[in-house]
Design a protein that fits this description.
8 helices, six-stranded parallel sheet, elongated, Rossmann fold, four-stranded antiparallel sheet, alpha/beta, single chain, 2 domains, 10 strands
């Protein structure tokens, strides 16, 4: 691999960008492909198509082609979950999501709730949700879950999430609460297609009652969205 290719790969890894490294085994020729790329210099079209397919699924595999064998190595960042509201459900959800391989960020300007002793080993932001989510630069590997029930906190977070390519957006609350939430979004100019991106009430319908059970239902729905290819 040429030094320039390695430098670009390392830069992509540091920036948490998804990238596929395509290596021709016969001579070590290597090239990089990113989501949305249509071609790579020196890489046959069939290999490009297969590499992008593998990258979308996070797979690494060999690929036989007339001129030789290629190995496709996919590098994708860990999925991220941004939880707005440092409530009891968030405590269970943050730990479960961390164990499931998510990088978790809990956002809540109420410092009495957003304490490190309540979220051990979890990244915490006490900025206002709108500002926090903007600075986090939400991407296609990010899920956003709002749990506060307080429009002053949830709504700015939803505005930021809907302006991003986040693969999952969910909000806690009853059906009545969710209808009111959608009406507020409509009044702020969000189209129906935007509003339909929000899962509300958040989580799978499994009859959950306790904070931990609700967290399970949310995490299961998030994982379902992630593995369905929507990310």
């Amino acid at each position: 691999m040429k030094a320039g290719t390695l430098d670009r790969l390392l830069a992509d890894r540091r920036a948490k960008r998804s990238v596929a490294l395509v290596t021709r085994l016969e001579d070590g020729f290597a090239a990089l492909l990113h989501p949305g790329d249509r071609a790579a210099e020196g890489v046959p079209r069939e290999v490009v198509v297969e590499a992008l397919r593998a990258l979308a699924k996070g797979q690494s595999l060999p690929f036989e082609q007339d001129e030789g064998t290629y190995f496709i190595r996919s590098f994708i960042p860990d999925p991220r979950m941004v939880i707005v509201g440092a409530v009891h459900i968030a405590q269970s959800l943050a730990e479960m999501a961390r164990l499931a391989g998510f990088h978790v960020v809990v956002v809540d300007p109420r410092q009495a709730f957003a304490r490190s002793d309540r979220f051990v080993g979890i990244e915490i932001s006490t900025d206002w949700p709108g500002q926090a989510l903007e600075e986090l630069e939400l991407d296609r590997r990010t899920a956003v879950v709002t749990l506060t029930h307080d429009p002053k906190l949830d709504d700015p977070a939803l505005d930021a999430a809907l302006a991003s390519p986040a693969f999952y957006i969910g909000s806690l609350g009853s059906k009545k609460t969710h209808r009111a939430r959608l009406e507020r979004l409509a009044s702020r100019g969000f189209a129906e297609a935007d509003r339909e991106r929000i899962r509300g009430p958040v989580g799978l319908s499994i009859g959950s009652v306790t904070p931990a059970e609700i967290a399970v239902s949310i995490l299961a729905e998030v994982i379902g969205a992630l593995r369905s290819g929507s990310s």
